[in-house]
Amino acid sequence: MATSNLPVLYSFFRSSCSWRVRLALSFKKIAYETRPVNLLLNENKTEEYKAIQPFGAVPAFIDTNGKVFIESVAIMEYLDETRPEFPLLPKDSVDRATVRALVQAIAMDIQPVCSIRILRYTSRGETDWSNHFISLGFEAYEKMLEKTAGKYSFGDTITMADLVLAPQYYNGIRAGVDMTLYPIIYRIHSTLEQLEEFKATHPSMQPDCPLEPY
Amino acid sequence: MATSNLPVLYSFFRSSCSWRVRLALSFKKIAYETRPVNLLLNENKTEEYKAIQPFGAVPAFIDTNGKVFIESVAIMEYLDETRPEFPLLPKDSVDRATVRALVQAIAMDIQPVCSIRILRYTSRGETDWSNHFISLGFEAYEKMLEKTAGKYSFGDTITMADLVLAPQYYNGIRAGVDMTLYPIIYRIHSTLEQLEEFKATHPSMQPDCPLEPY
């Protein structure tokens, strides 16, 4: 389905799951074409897009081999297995399990509960709902980081955990969460946000980011 | 923390995430000690348990090396890396990504939205909420399986995807979802539920399953 010889990323600028994969691609120095999918305009619910991603979720990734990959963490694992430059997981199995637990704590226990489709369904206020669950989640995540963090989420090397943390931090800010309540998260994010890879993949730098405040 | 020389699984009988890991342990023929954590009695919210699992979620796994592992999918990946008997993922990277996408579609896009803590927070009826999101999820999952399924979720070999599907099917039944609407899921589950590993790890067979209907 790619029209160029680059891999394709279906992405929505402010989707934290899309951002995870943008970060993985950036750290691994993989050039790619962005195809924006506007969730607010329901572009993810077209038959054409659902043929690629049946849940109508972003991101989706099409590699140069023409294969379609979905689910952000599965895509990052795939990129890590096929592009060894800048490994996203440690080598030791116990360490890998620790990083994967950090990744999944955000990817399963925090992010999904506050996705757009959930917010649209709840009869509670959207921001209250997000604030509630992100705050609870970060409170627990901070405890995980007490055991694992160095300069970054797992020791002093960037891992997949950091690629998941920064986009969730952004979601927290959007939901009005006071991030200074979580000093380790706050400190790691302050370090991460200075890196070129984070700046270049930030929602505000995406081709589909509107000029007006969003 | 283990009192025997067996690994320990902190588990709640009807937690689908606990069941995933029970299945992985069963297929890999790893003997273990079950330590029940009753979510309905808030046993997961004690300081003692949260020192093990800061989110207060089940399962948690303590291996014979004394290391603590949390997050069900990370635990399954760890078991698969350290106990090669009965591999849960294919060898090829594209295939692995496909199985992981199936796993994560349930583990991130379906299950978390209907966990007990979410159901307690929503002001909609618990069963209606679960039914809504599990139905939407299985509708999309069925489309994924159209591309991947054989006898099982991915071809004709049991993978991690099946270990995640069966417990989610059980959640669907509990939420009153008509599973015959999803013929591939229904067929795969009918095959899976006849296997000894599924029978032995079923919620109703757990030491903490109450005698009364639950």
TrEMBL record, chains A, B:
Gene3D superfamilies: 1.20.1050.10, Glutaredoxin
Pfam family, one: GST_C_3
Signal peptide residue numbers: none
Domain GST C-terminal: 92-211
Domain GST N-terminal: 5-87
Single GO BP term: glutathione metabolic process
GO cellular component: mitochondrion
InterPro entries cross-referenced by the UniProt entry: Glutathione-S-Trfase_C-like, Glutathione-S-Trfase_C_sf, Glutathione_S-Trfase, Glutathione_S-Trfase_N, GST_C, GST_Zeta, GST_Zeta_C, GST_Zeta_N
Single Gene Ontology MF annotation: glutathione transferase activity
Family that this chain belongs to: Belongs to the GST superfamily. Zeta family.
PANTHER family: MALEYLACETOACETATE ISOMERASE (PTHR42673)
Protein name (database record): Glutathione S-transferase zeta-1
Source organism of the structure: Entomortierella chlamydospora
Record lineage: Eukaryota, Fungi, Fungi incertae sedis, Mucoromycota, Mortierellomycotina
